[in-house]
Each structure stands twice: as structure tokens, then as C-alpha cells.
Design brief:
Order of helices and strands: HEHHEHH
Largest sheet: 2 strands, parallel
Distance between the termini: 24 Å
Shape: globular
Number of helices: 5
Length: 104
DNA sequence: CTGCTGACCCAAG
DNA sequence: CCTTGGGCCAGCA
């Protein structure tokens, strides 16, 4: 029942909200599920502009390398959020998508 | 409407 | 393995 009239931002919101705790997914996957497999970039742009307190688990979205694309404080915050959900980071801050990847 | 930016991805060297 | 370049798409001034 996903309305095709909804903006890309609304679709991304819906997809990210469907990610179960303890799992992570990539921007490319979210973009594909949102209806635009080539708009992986825009997924980040949407999350960046998201309002605070949206209850959206944006921290469960990482890049294809299994790492956090953010820098500085945002990076630390996302890392802590993932650790709190049981996500394990390997050496170099790489997450094993084979184990923690959503739909994998 | 035009142009620039960007929490990406893929291919090639 | 790492670096460079190009493409793609949506949001915003």
C-alpha cells in the first residue's frame, strides 16, 4: 500500500523505519526499496535533512563497504547507536554485512 | 526554471 | 590493495 505519489523522502522514511533492530542496510538497498536504485546518494541527503526526534533509525543505514559514511560527532553517535543494538564492529570500523546486513 | 551540492556506487588503472 | 573518474538522482538557493 505504498502510495506512488509519496515523495522520495517519504518512501525512504518508510523503508528505513522497517529496518529491524540489530540489523543494518546500505544506502543502495534503501534507494532500491524506495523505488530508485540509482538514488543511493539522495538517501543520505534525505536523512541529513531529517528533523530530530523523528524516531527513525537512520543509524541502521551505512555504505556499501559496511562502514559509516559520517564524520566527527555524527560518526561517533551512529557507532554508539549500533553498538547499543548489538552490532559488532571489526578492525577498522567495518561491519560484517553477511551477519548484520538486513535482508541478507 | 537553472545550477550546485552531496550521509553513494561502480568500473578501470 | 588503493586511487581516480564518471554517473545518477533528489533537495534546495
Amino acid at each position: 500500500m505504498e502510495s506512488t505519489d509519496a515523495t522520495f523522502r517519504q518512501r525512504v522514511f518508510h523503508v528505513v523505519a522497517a529496518i529491524p533492530a540489530g540489523k543494518v542496510t546500505t544506502y543502495g538497498e534503501v534507494a532500491q526499496l524506495a523505488g530508485s536504485p540509482r538514488a543511493a546518494r539522495q538517501v543520505g541527503g534525505v536523512l541529513k535533512k531529517l528533523p530530530p526526534g523523528s524516531s527513525l533509525p537512520w543509524h541502521r543505514v551505512i555504505n556499501r563497504h559496511g562502514k559509516i559514511s559520517l564524520r566527527g560527532e555524527d560518526f561517533q553517535r551512529q557507532r554508539q547507536a549500533l553498538l547499543a543494538e548489538g552490532i559488532q564492529f571489526g578492525v577498522g570500523g567495518v561491519i560484517d554485512l553477511r551477519r548484520f546486513g538486513w535482508r541478507l
